[in-house]
Design goal:
This protein is of the alpha/beta class. The chain is built from 5 helices and 4 strands, in the order βαβαβαβαα. α3 (91-110) links the parallel β3 (77-85) and β4. α1 runs parallel beside α5 (138-155) and α2 (62-73) runs parallel beside α3. It comes from Chromohalobacter moromii.
C-alpha cells in the first residue's frame, strides 16, 4: 500500500507580499486588529516593506477594495479587517452577510487567499474582547491564516 501524501502550510516560509484592507468604521476596535496583524506578519519574518495597508470607509466597501488590491498589487494574500457591531436595525445582517459572502467568492474568483478578520459581534464589549483582550486578537489570527495559506501554496508548487 502506498503512503498517503499530505501537505500543509507552516510559518517558516511565509515571505511574500501581503495587503491588509481595513474598514475604518469602528476604528477604536479595528486599529487593534491592524496592530495584531502587522505584529504577527513581522514576527514571522515578513518584511514590513512587503505589507501594504489600505483603508476604506467600512466593511461594506472591503470586497471591492480587496478585489482592486489583488488586481493591481498582486499580493500573495490579503487580510480583510473590520468590525460590524449589531444595532437595533437589520443593517448589521446586510452588511455582515454580504461582506462575508463577497470575500468568500472573491478568493475563489481571484485564486488568492483572502482571510477574514472582520468582526461580526453583538456588542462593543464583544468587539473589544476579540481585538486583543479576552478572546485574543482576530487581526493576528487572520494574519496567521494568511501566512499559512501562502506557505501552503508554495509547498503545493505555486504562490497564488
Amino acid at each position: 500500500m502506498q503512503p498517503i501524501s499530505q501537505v500543509e502550510g507552516g510559518y517558516t516560509d511565509v515571505d511574500g507580499r501581503y495587503v491588509i484592507v481595513v474598514g475604518r468604521f469602528n476604528h477604536h476596535v479595528v486599529d487593534s486588529l491592524v496592530e495584531g496583524a502587522v505584529d504577527s506578519l513581522v514576527r514571522h519574518g515578513v518584511d514590513e516593506e512587503n505589507v501594504d495597508i489600505i483603508h476604506v470607509p467600512g466593511a461594506w466597501e472591503l470586497p471591492l477594495a480587496v478585489k482592486r488590491a489583488v488586481q493591481v498589487l498582486k499580493p500573495h494574500a490579503v487580510i480583510a479587517l473590520g468590525a460590524v457591531i449589531r444595532g437595533g436595525t437589520p443593517h448589521f445582517d446586510y452588511v455582515a452577510g454580504n461582506c462575508n459572502s463577497a470575500m468568500s467568492s472573491l478568493q475563489l474568483e481571484l485564486n488568492t487567499p483572502i482571510t477574514n478578520g472582520v468582526l461580526t459581534v453583538d456588542s462593543i464589549d464583544q468587539a473589544i474582547e476579540r481585538a486583543g483582550t479576552k478572546a485574543g486578537n482576530k487581526g493576528a489570527e487572520a494574519a496567521m491564516a494568511a501566512m499559512e495559506m501562502v506557505s501552503l501554496f508554495k509547498r503545493m508548487g505555486g504562490e497564488g
